[in-house]
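Hi R.,

Here's the chain you asked about this morning:
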Amino acid sequence: MTALARIPKREEKIVPTAEAQEAFYTAECADSFVHATDENYTSEATAIAREQEGATRERMHRSRIAKVIIWRMISVTITMIIIYVATGSFSKSTGVTACLHGILVFCHYQFESFWEKINENHKEKD
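And here is the predicted structure, written out as tokens:
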């Protein structure tokens, strides 16, 4: 019998053996399980990443505020000393320094926020 004789005719139906059907079903189930597991893993990993990103942003925000406050304390001290030396009056140097640095703290924080937004926009474009 030649190889051509084994080819079924069009009207004949090919029925897979029970073993073939079981193997196909097992492979299909395994593929579905892996796919579902991948989707679950991906959604869990995404949720964890988002949570960590939120925590990181909060830490960065607190760090920025602390950095601004510490620098302002140093700057206030330097400014007060310079104004006291120039005017010779402790009350004048205190008033001018307090007013000046109140404005500067606000401006510095706004500048940091603006700078961060610019960097985020550049990252989104890349």
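One quick note: Residues 33-38 have pLDDT under 50 and may be disordered.

Cheers,
M.
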